[in-house]
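tool_call predict_complex ligand=zinc ion
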Amino acid sequence: MLYLRKTTSVFLITILMFVNCGSGMKVVASQIKKPLNIILMIGDGMGLAQISAASFLYGGLTLDQFLEIGLLRTSSGDDYITDSAAGATAYSTGEKTFNGAIGVGLDSLPRVTILELAEKNGLSSGLISTCSVTHATPGSFFGHRVNREMHVQIAEDFYKKGIDFVAGTGKPYFSIEKLKQDGYETYTGVSVPNWDKSKKQFWFYNDSIHPPKANERGNWLAEMTKAGIQHLSQNKKGFFLMVEGSQIDWGGHDTDFNYTVSELKDFDLAIQVALEFAKKDGNTLILVTADHETGGLSLDAGTLNPRSIQHHYSSTHHSGIMVPVYAFGPGASFFKGTHENTEVFRQMKMLLGL
Ligand code: MG
Ligand code: ZN
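tool_result ok
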């Protein structure tokens, strides 16, 4: 059993471990290093079958390098099978809520998110996704709405939050004028612009609701992740960054295997950028997980040379199978074992001292 307590130290937390040593329970106190920064990476719809397939077909993934791995139960507050809104809200607020809910609890009232807590405590924050910033996963980190389809209202919740770096789509839902009033530099385009590091940044991939699929995006997600980390790491108090591989899920809904694995590979390139930074930095915790699995994907047969997989999807929706959580950096060991998805919020909050 673990008991965690914040100390006055910025960098350390004291752990009181109740260890059964044969002659009864003994309390062991030890201190572990705390992360200054957390990068939470969510592969939407990324289950073990999706990871297994991409790892096999691409001859390995960066994800395979992680040593601290746990499992998360994904049920929402009103259904065995979660949707992405309730799944992201569990990570952003630590509460199981109803499917479709964005940053609100079962009573439909707003809950404070990990990103809002980070901002309140002087950390920097960022959101990067390969879909609209108002979509369920990123939206649940700043929005507070009872229905995920309320994109205009979710965008309204964005202003005045102080979020420092954003890259994604959904431009039609946002007011460029309001973003400017809010102190943002905005940019629309696929490349990394020359940007003013002292200003908040909001970068749209294009003028549409969503960007194209991975095979047309180039290395956009990894490049945005690199720029986002560069921007946020200016804050010596630390940062919270959420990066989403949004379209792994859409490959599942479309039962399009190539779409699924190419999106996963694209997401893995962003993971590589984050991991390289964390290895050098030493103060960054990276968590890679999913909100749920999509498609009930099963890998039925295959060949080793050339590498090929025969698969089938058991549905066009989400499944209830547990999802992995991969962790690297200070605090990574807390994510080992089997947990509810809400535990991720509690551990991130504790580790950042929020
Ligand atoms: Mg999503
Ligand atoms: Zn989905």
